[in-house]
């Protein structure tokens, strides 16, 4: 991959992260990225995006909506040709996965 392609991929990934940060768990006032629910973001050469994510618990009431909202946020980024979200519970979510900003917002710091 050439330097310019690498920079464009990194830029697209940063834009996808920014878009995902607009998605909030309806029960927690922190976005899903800073909560640590996003495990992986992979931008493919065709500018399609693969996202691996989890939920705070397998029986999370938002299970039916959050993955779709994350996928839609990624698709909304200019340049993204397609997006697919895979839901996983391995490894299980723990509060250690949250960013310091999220921990501060929730009063854990």
Ordered list of secondary-structure elements with their pairings:
Layout: H1 3-20, H2 32-35, E1 38-43, E2 48-53, H3 66-75, E3 82-87, H4 100-105
Parallel strand pairs: 2-3
Antiparallel strand pairs: 1-2
Helix pairs in contact: 1-3
Please supply descriptive tags for the structure shown above.
109 residues; 4 helices; GMP Synthetase, Chain A, domain 3; three-stranded mixed beta sheet; alpha+beta; 3 strands
Written account of the structure:
With 109 residues, the protein is an alpha+beta fold. It has a single domain, classed as GMP Synthetase, Chain A, domain 3 (2-Layer Sandwich). The chain is built from 4 helices and 3 strands, in the order ααββαβα. A hairpin with a 4-residue loop joins strand 1 (38-43) and strand 2. Helix 1 packs across helix 3. The relative contact order is 0.20.
Summarize, please.
The protein is of the alpha+beta class. The protein is about 35% helix and about 15% strand.
Q: Please state the second-level CATH architecture.
A: 2-Layer Sandwich
Helix-strand sequence: HHEEHEH
Name the quaternary structure. single chain
Name given to the CATH homologous superfamily: Fe-S cluster assembly (FSCA)
CATH topology label: GMP Synthetase, Chain A, domain 3
Secondary structure tally: strands = 3
How many helical elements? 4
Counting helices, strands and paired strands, the structural category is alpha+beta
User: Which whole number gives the mean pLDDT?
Assistant: 90
**Name of the top-level CATH class:** Alpha Beta
Order of neighbouring strands in the sheet with most strands = 1-2-3
Helix proportion range = 25-40%
Q: Span from first to last CA?
A: 41 Å
Instruction: Classify the beta-strand content into a percent band.
Output: 15-25%
Radius of gyration: 14 Å
Shape call:
globular
- Biggest sheet record: 3 strands, mixed
Query: What are the low-pLDDT stretches, counting only 5+ consecutive residues below 50?
Result: none
């Amino acid at each position: 991959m050439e330097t310019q392609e690498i920079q464009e991929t990194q830029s697209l990934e940063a834009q996808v992260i920014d878009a995902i940060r607009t998605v909030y768990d309806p029960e927690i006032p922190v976005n899903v990225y800073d909560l640590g629910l996003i495990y992986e973001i992979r931008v493919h050469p065709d500018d399609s995006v693969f996202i691996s994510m989890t939920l705070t618990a397998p029986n999370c009431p938002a299970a039916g909506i959050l993955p779709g909202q994350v996928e839609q946020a990624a698709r909304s980024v200019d340049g993204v040709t397609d997006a697919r979200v895979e839901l996983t519970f391995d490894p299980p979510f723990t509060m250690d996965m949250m960013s310091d900003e999220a921990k501060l917002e929730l009063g854990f710091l």
